[in-house]
Amino acid sequence: MFTHTAIANLNGLELIVYNYAIKNKDKVMYMTIRELADAAEVSTTTVLRFCKKMGCDGYSEFRIRFKLYLEQEVHQPVNFGVSEILSFFKSINNEEFDELINQAVIQIINAERIVFVGAGTSGSLGKYGARFFSNVGKFSNYIDDPYYPISSDMFKNAIAIILSVSGETPEILRLASQFSLHHCKIISITNSETSSLARMADFNLSYHMPQTLISGEYNITTQVPVIYMLEAIGNHLAKTYLKK
């Protein structure tokens, strides 16, 4: 029901409805459209738009299909964040997502140099991505310091894979601008395809997980989808090289 493509087409308010529904599954089945709109703090019009993007004619059909969706789930003890992660994996279990991974590989395959870019947690994942890609035979390095000096040689026949949850970190956007200015292709992996970084990139993968902040500042949004995407691209690259 909730495919990766459908979720990617949601705007900010519609994504709030989706996140509320996923986190409050047992309640939503019995809610009226007004109750859901009030609970998610959006308008009923937004809820209707969300339903239509999920392939439903209206809210009544959405509730029926949502109930069937829940009945098909494999029930297991729910830990913190598990429902959102399971929903992510269900949304990408299709040919549409496989094609997105394939498109990313096509962008990468002919590049002589891959540079992973990220700050904080995303910087650590960039380091992991660089090692993983190097393991499959595609030498890569990483930048986890947003003030790292970039030489002109770094852009030659290169592709930058830039990681950012928000896609709005000023220092990362500055680095992305430098890569773009020197005609270096950019693949971004962000939580939302509407972020500044996603719009700046030549190709974007997004994962649409509920953002979690501590003290309104420290971002602890799960990065499981990012690791999966990096490994999916790396494994696809490995298969490509094995064929040569």
UniProtKB/TrEMBL annotation:
Protein name, UniProt field: MurR/RpiR family transcriptional regulator
An MF annotation (GO) of this entry: DNA-binding transcription factor activity
PANTHER family, per database record: GLUCOKINASE, HTH-TYPE TRANSCRIPTIONAL REGULATOR HEXR-RELATED
CDD domains noted in UniProt: SIS_RpiR
Organism: Limnobaculum xujianqingii
InterPro entries: Homeodomain-like_sf, HTH_RpiR, RpiR-like, RpiR-like_SIS, SIS_dom, SIS_dom_sf, WH-like_DNA-bd_sf
Higher taxonomy: Bacteria, Pseudomonadati, Pseudomonadota, Gammaproteobacteria, Enterobacterales
GO biological process: carbohydrate derivative metabolic process
Residues annotated as domain SIS: 104-240
Entry keyword DNA-binding: yes
HTH rpiR-type domain sequence ranges: 1-73
UniProtKB keywords: DNA-binding, Transcription, Transcription regulation
